[in-house]
Design brief:
Limiting CO2-inducible protein B/C beta carbonyic anhydrase domain-containing protein; two-stranded antiparallel sheet; alpha/beta; LCIB/C_CA
Length: about 250
């Protein structure tokens, strides 16, 4: 299947999606051309789901960055918290930059089915993101108890609490799973920015790329639907919105 055919399937749901390979290439071009830095001066953290498919489908070229430091747990929420972000910040080259790639993920099969992908070696498609779909199933069944958090399943319970706050919005949506993913993105984006604001960095810049990370079947790969591309100049605390530049 040609690249344009793959994108046509994904863009039925996410019109601004590009391949994750292209998104990493754009990031590398940006740090080289606009920041005059080499990828080896960039310490990358990702806050994406711990699902194995994300490791399998993430572009090899991302290894040109340092890291990645893993901030995320189920569906990308930054469960490493303030201590994790602080540890990550201490690893960054003084003359370099921090890059945080973050967001929830969702599957779209080559047939265009939301929430499913065909994984390598399996006969049938499986859920993606399984945590989001599981939480949504409990939301439909009205079995999420407000404030319920157990140590044995803390991350899943946290995802459940996030979507419970937006129950009516999610259940009234045309695509409840897609809306669930949007709600989780908003929670991740808010938490990442909270962590950034409370962390001291000794480098020059913080680069934020907030996305809906889209997985597909083994022979399709993964895609990025960017929602935030922002540069923070740590010398001036100026924030620069670069979304237009990212897509150009």
């Amino acid at each position: 299947m040609k690249k344009r055919e793959k994108l046509a399937i994904i863009r039925q749901h996410y019109p601004n999606a590009i391949s994750t390979i292209d998104s990493i290439n754009k990031l590398i071009d940006f740090v080289e051309a606009q920041l005059d830095l080499e990828p080896a001066q960039i310490m990358m953290a990702d806050s994406i789901c711990s699902d194995d498919v994300n490791s399998i489908q993430f572009p090899v070229r991302s290894n040109e960055f340092l890291g990645p430091f893993k901030l995320g747990g189920l569906d990308g929420f930054p469960f490493a918290g303030l201590s994790g972000m602080g540890a990550f910040a201490s690893h960054v080259p003084d003359d370099g930059a921090v890059l945080v790639y973050y967001g929830p993920h969702i599957g779209i099969s080559k047939e265009g089915v939301l929430g499913e992908i065909h994984r390598f070696g399996q006969q049938n498609s499986t859920d993606c993101c399984g945590a989001a779909k599981g939480a949504l199933k409990k939301l439909h069944a009205n079995t999420i108890a407000l404030g319920h958090l157990e140590d044995i399943d803390y991350q899943m319970n946290t995802i459940e609490q996030i979507i419970l706050k937006e129950k009516d919005r999610i259940l009234s949506a045309v695509h409840p799973l897609k809306e669930t993913t949007e709600v989780i993105y908003e929670a991740i984006d808010a938490r990442i920015n909270e962590l950034i604001n409370q962390t001291k960095y000794t480098c020059k810049y913080v680069i934020l790329l907030g996305t809906i990370h889209i997985n597909s079947d083994t022979d399709m790969g993964s895609f990025t639907s960017a929602k935030r591309f922002e540069l923070i100049n740590l010398a001036t605390n100026e924030r620069q919105n670069l979304m237009e530049e990212f897509f150009n």
